[in-house]
Automatic annotation (TrEMBL):
It comes from Polycladomyces zharkentensis. InterPro entries: MFS (IPR011701), MFS_dom (IPR020846), MFS_Na/Anion_cotransporter (IPR050382), MFS_trans_sf (IPR036259), Sugar_transporter_CS (IPR005829). It is a multi-pass membrane protein. It holds the Pfam family MFS_1. Its main location: membrane. The chain crosses the membrane at residues 53-71, 83-102, 148-168, 180-203, 215-236, 242-264, 280-300, 312-337, 349-370, 376-400, 412-430, 442-463. PROSITE patterns: MFS, SUGAR_TRANSPORT_2. It comes from the Bacteria. Keywords: Membrane, Transmembrane, Transmembrane helix, Transport. This is MFS transporter. Signal peptide: none annotated.
Amino acid sequence: MQTNVKGWKHYHTVWLLLLLGWTVSAADRAVTGPIVTWMIENKVSFLMAAEHPHALGGLVGSLFFTGYMLTQFPGGYYGDRFGHRRIITISLFVAAITTVVSGFMSSLIGFVALRVLTGLGEGVYYANDRTLITEVTPFEKRSLGMGVVITGLALGVTFALLLPPYLIRWGNSLLGDGQGWRMVFFAFGIVTLIVAVVVSACLKNKSDQASYRDALIGLGKYNILFFLAILGVFFIADQAGLPSWGVAVIELVLCFMLVGFAYIKKGTELSKVLRDRSLVIMYIGHIAILWNLWFFSFWSVSIISEAANTSFLQAALTATFNGVAGIIGFPAGGWLADYALRKNWGRKVVLVWFILLQGITTLIFGIYLINGGKSAFVMGTLIFVASLFFNAMQPIYHAIIADLSEPNQRGATFGMANLVGEIGAVLSPAVSGTLRDATNSWSPAVFLDAAIILSFFVLVLFVKERRVAMGQSIHQVIENR
C-alpha cells in the first residue's frame, strides 16, 4: 500500500469531521468553568446561596465529569458492537440538546442535572473517535491523525474561554441584566446541533447493519442508571452537609464499581483490555492527564483574575494561551512521534520527555504564584509553555494505547483508559476549588497539579512499548494493511 501519495484522502475527511466534533464537544464542557466564575463574581442567586461558592462551583464541574467518566467504557464497548460512527453521532446530538436546555435552568439542581446529562452524552465520544481514527488512518500517520483531530479540543477550550464575556454582554442586553450567561449555553448548543447534523450525514457507513435503536437502548440503560446514581449521591451528601470534595470522592465509588463490574462480568471477553500490564499503567497515567487538563480549563480564568487582580475579560483572554498552545502542540506532538517511529526511536521516548518538561514548567508556575507574581503576561507565557508540552504528548499517549490494544477491542480499551482517567477530571475541579477556599491561594493547587504530572512521568517509564512497528517491521505492517 502506498501511503506517500499526495492529495486529499478519505481519512483526511474523517479527521476534519471528528475535529469539528471535538471542538463543539470540548467547548460545551469547558464553558462551565468560566460561567461559574462569572456567576460567583456577579452573585447569581442559586450559586451564591452556598457558603463556599468556589468549592460548589468545582463540584458542578466534578458532577459533569462523573457523568462523562461513567459512560466512557460502555460507550467504547457499544461502539465495538454497534459501530463507532453511530455512537459518535448520538453523542453530539445529546450534547447539543442538553447544552441548550442548560440555559433555561433557574435552580441549582436543574443546572446540575443538565450538566450531568451533558457529561453522560459526551462521555461516549472519546473512545469511538480514537478507534475510528485508528481504523481509517495509515499506521505510520497514526500519531499525526490523533493530534490533528484532538486539536479540536484546544479549539473548543479556546472558544469556551474567549467567547463567554462577549456572549454574556449580548445576552444581558437581550435577556436582562444578570441573565446573559444563558446566551452562552444557547449559542454553544445551537452550534453543536449544526455540527451533529453535518457529522451524521457525512460519517454514514453502509456496512453498518445495527440500528440507532439498538445503540440507544444499550446506552440508555446505563445512562438512566448513572444519572439517578449521581443525583442520588448529590442529594444524600447535600442533606448530610458533606464538603464538596467529599461528594466528589463518593462519586468516584461509582467509577470503581463500574471498573469492578467490567473485571467480574467482562474479564474473560476483554482480558487483553483489562489485564495487560502496560495498558493498566497507561490507564492510571491518564488520571494525571485529565487532572491537569480540567484544572487549568476550569480554573485558569479565576487563577489569573485573582493573582493579577484583573478583569474577567482580561483574565479570559490571557487564559486562552492554554487553548492556543493546544492548536500548535497537538499536531506537532503527533508529527514528532511518527517521525521518532520512523527513526526507530519509538513513540515512548518523545512522550516521557514532554511529560517531564510540562511538569517542570507547571512547578515554575506554582513558584511564581507563591512568591507573589502578578504579571498576567508572565502567567500567560508559563501556561502557554506548559500547555504546549502537555498537548503535544496527548496524541502520542493515544497512539501508544492504539498500538497496545487489540483491533476488535480498541473501543473498549480507549473507553477503559478514559474511565480511569476521568478520576482526575472528577476530583480536579472540586479538590482544587476546596484548596483555594482553604488557603485563600491558588498556589497549593498548582503545586499539587505539578506533583501529579511528575508522578505520571515516573509511571510511563515502566510501560513496555510494542515495538513491532519500528525499523524494518513498519514497512511490513504497511504492506499488510
